From TrEMBL:
Keywords: Hydrolase, Protease, Signal. It comes from Dendrobium catenatum. The active site is at D144, D349. Residues 1-24 form the signal peptide. This is Protein ASPARTIC PROTEASE IN GUARD CELL 2. Belongs to the peptidase A1 family. GO terms for biological process: proteolysis. InterPro entries: Aspartic_peptidase_A1 (IPR001461), Aspartic_peptidase_AS (IPR001969), CND41-like (IPR033873), PEPTIDASE_A1 (IPR033121), Peptidase_aspartic_dom_sf (IPR021109), TAXi_C (IPR032799), TAXi_N (IPR032861).
């Protein structure tokens, strides 16, 4: 046991030992800090998510943080800047796509055949990965609730980025079939994406192409293939066979689309898993695991509190995104007052790191947090993170609790792991991990940094989303 603890200490710059404490009327939690070593964060030798199993009709996949296999950042400041740049690109892409869906038809539902191809932008940092089998080939893919199309890099590859797993070769798979250009599946995808007939020049293949607005892109052919999710076999799974892909996808094979529309993995496995999936994200970026559960048996979870459900906002109905109604936020025992709560539509997203709030809500949150945290030294802001503190040399700090309130009175406590981002290794610049949007009419985003140690349950058929506290790890 002592040797194990010593090895953990050698791999970490700053370990956070976090214990919930009571101060006043449960207004604060106590965060214990202990600097235990020097040197850079290291990627674990067990960085790839390999574990999976079936239980009670559900499939459980191990989730790892993308950074587990990455050592490309020289400092924490460099890493944070990359996170912010990636987030900004993704958010810009999300807003562009939201506006496109809003403008396509004010309140008219598209036919079921109109399936949008969408995906997240610039997948570099603070994303989460799982392993699946496609045509009996193991693939490590990024989990993305803001995407519909699942795609992997394929041979022949005219332009591909470096990945850790072997590139999928459809010519060696007996279960692979190209989707013909004149098929209903191809036509529906093309109509939905606004792409005119896009067929292969030398063969009647159904081609796809998607650019993210930041220079990243994927293009190739659509195909049917057998997908293996921890022993649950789905034949005829529609996916993108990417033959030209560019972007900082971090050595993964591609992307798993968990969006709301018919092309997503969730919709394509509706008979196996009932349109329900959930995740519990790893609390740390290194030497930490979480889980992605496909299926809805709650006895599998290890939640510490009951699951509370809030309504999904289906506006527009054909959108691939998951919208909720944020009705309030509390800092300590103080309920914030802000005009932004009167139209509190927010997007919950697995691919965005930092939560963004409309200005009226963010300013109220920032000011109240500063008031309750006023005993600690203020530090300069860092980029979009403007609420920062100097906690160097301290062994513990008392932090105001933060609670999001969603429609129906559903209260979600933000875990201490999701409160602060440590810009400096010595904790001399520690910033509140939330940021303000520019305009009041923009849609807020609940990022993955504030979803740590939560079981987040997506019930797509019931149009509801559930939250429960859970110490995330491999189930």
């Amino acid at each position: 046991m002592a040797e194990h603890l010593l090895s953990l200490c050698c791999c970490s710059l700053l370990l956070l030992f976090m214990v919930v404490g009571v101060a006043g009327k449960e207004e604060k939690i106590v965060l214990y800090l202990q600097k235990v070593g020097l040197g850079e964060e290291r990627a674990s030798q067990y960085c790839l998510p390999k574990r999976s199993r079936r239980e009670k009709g559900a499939t459980i996949l191990e989730v790892k943080h993308h950074s587990s296999c990455t050592t490309s950042f020289s400092t924490r400041e460099d890493k944070l800047m990359k996170i912010i740049e990636s987030d900004n690109s993704r958010i810009s892409s999300l807003y562009h796509r939201i506006k496109n869906f809003d403008s396509r038809s004010p309140k008219t539902v598209l036919s079921e055949s109109q399936i949008p191809i969408t995906s997240g932008a610039k997948l570099q940092t603070l994303n989460y990965i799982v392993s699946i089998k496609l045509g009996n080939n193991e693939m490590t893919v990024i989990v993305d609730t803001g995407s519909d199309l699942t795609w992997v890099q394929c041979q022949p590859c005219s332009s591909c980025y470096n990945q850790q797993d072997p590139i999928f070769n459809p010519s060696t798979s007996q279960s692979y079939q190209q989707i013909p250009c004149n098929s209903p599946t191809c036509s529906s995808v093309q109509i939905a994406t606004g792409i005119s007939s896009f067929c292969g020049s030398d063969q009647p293949s159904c081609n796809y192409s998607f650019s993210y607005g930041d220079g990243s892109h994927t293009s190739g052919v659509l195909g049917w293939e057998q997908i293996d999710l921890a022993g649950t076999i789905i034949d005829g799974f529609v996916f993108g066979c990417g033959q030209s892909n560019y972007g900082l996808f971090g050595g993964t094979s591609g992307l798993m689309g968990l969006g709301r529309t018919q092309l997503s993995l969730i919709s394509q496995t509706i008979f196996q898993f009932g349109g329900i999936f959930s995740y519990c994200l790893p609390p740390r970026e290194y030497d930490s695991s979480g889980s992605l559960v496909l299926g809805g048996d709650p006895s599998i979870f290890k939640n510490n509190t009951p699951v509370s459900y809030t309504r999904m906002i289906l506006d527009p109905p054909e959108s691939p995104f998951y919208f909720l109604n944020l009705t309030g936020i509390s800092i300590g025992a103080v309920a914030l007052q802000a005009s932004g709560f009167y139209n509190g539509k927010v997007l919950i997203d697995s691919g965005t790191a930092i939560t963004r709030l409309v200005p009226s809500i963010y300013i109220a949150l920032r000011d109240e947090f500063m008031r309750q945290f006023s005993e600690y030294l203020v530090a300069p802001g860092y980029s979009i993170l403007d609420t920062c503190f100097n906690l160097a040399g301290l062994r513990e700090v008392s932090i105001p609790t933060m609670k999001f309130v969603f429609e129906g009175g559903v209260e979600v406590d933000v875990d201490v792991n999701g409160m602060f981002y440590y810009v400096k290794e010595d904790a001399s610049q520690v910033c509140l991990a939330l940021a303000s949007l520019t305009y009041e009419d923009e849609v807020g985003i609940i990022g993955n940094y504030q979803q740590k140690n939560l079981r987040v349950i997506y019930d797509t058929l019931g149009s509801r989303l559930g939250f429960a506290e859970e110490t995330c790890g491999w189930l």
